């Protein structure tokens, strides 16, 4: 199936496995970009692999000009030193999502929701964070601390992108939920509307406002794409 065919499927409302796989790829790239960056991300940026994957995925999903913009931004890293790029991206991630006292952009959807209500956000025990955790557990997804995964709250934007990738893979029948898990056909739409999209729209705006680092400006455009292609 060509990119034109995939766009036609999106327009018709008939979601085929190829579309679900393209959506899964987009959320995978977002998770890699919005969790604490690993050196492998810098290596993929400098080799051009990340740029090509992002451009092809967004083009396949019918994102048009946004795909070109993301590709142009990420192309700035091609041929650069991977170690220098890794430290540049990690430094910006720390500035934005960690901060000296508090993050400029909280990565936790529940904290942001509390802030909107004029409250102090609480990690793990906030109502939004607990709702996200219940949703994921019902679908058979939980942190595996024994495997070395961090114990960060699961409403972290990067973790939510990982979960959305999982839901896309289930819809594509590329993976099977764990025994006892319950994944409903409309779970992706429900999770997007109730937990991800409001935060992601705010986060992308903040990234554009606060960062001139091409990588995070590309993440902002890809967040917007993630919202748009799931409507």
From TrEMBL:
Chaperone in keyword set = yes
Record has Cell division as a keyword? no
Coiled coil regions in record: none
**UniProt keywords, alphabetically:** Chaperone
What are the TM regions of this chain, as residue ranges?
none
Q: What is this protein called?
A: Molecular chaperone TorD family protein
Give the species this sequence originates from: Adlercreutzia wanghongyangiae
């Amino acid at each position: 199936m060509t990119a034109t065919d995939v766009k036609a499927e999106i327009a018709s409302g008939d979601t085929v496995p190829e579309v679900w796989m393209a959506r899964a790829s987009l959320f995978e790239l977002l998770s890699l970009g919005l969790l604490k960056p690993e050196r492998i991300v810098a290596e993929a940026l400098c080799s051009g692999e990340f740029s090509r994957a992002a451009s092809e995925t967004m083009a396949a999903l019918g994102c048009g000009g946004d795909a070109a913009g993301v590709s142009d931004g990420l192309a700035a890293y091609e041929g650069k030193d991977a170690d220098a790029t890794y430290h540049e991206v990690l430094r910006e991630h720390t500035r934005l999502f960690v901060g000296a006292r508090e993050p400029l952009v909280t990565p936790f959807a529940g904290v942001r929701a509390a802030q909107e209500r004029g409250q102090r956000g609480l990690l793990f025990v906030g109502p939004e964070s607990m709702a996200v955790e219940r949703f994921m557990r019902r679908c058979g997804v939980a942190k595996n601390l024994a495997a070395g995964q961090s114990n960060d709250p699961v409403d972290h934007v990067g973790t939510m992108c990982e979960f959305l990738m999982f839901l896309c893979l289930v819809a594509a029948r590329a993976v099977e939920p764990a025994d006892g898990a319950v994944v409903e056909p409309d779970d992706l739409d429900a999770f997007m509307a109730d937990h991800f999209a409001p935060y992601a729209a705010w986060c992308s705006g903040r990234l554009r406002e606060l960062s001139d680092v091409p990588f995070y400006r590309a993440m902002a455009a890809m967040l917007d794409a993630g919202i748009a292609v799931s409507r």
